[in-house]
Amino acid sequence: QVQLVESGGGLVQAGGSLKLSCAASGFIFSTAAMAWYRQAPGKQRELVASITSFGSANYADSVKGRFTISRDDVLKRLYLQMNSLKPDDTAVYYCAIARSSTRGQGTQVTVSS
Question: Residue 92: what pLDDT?
Answer without folding.
Answer: 98
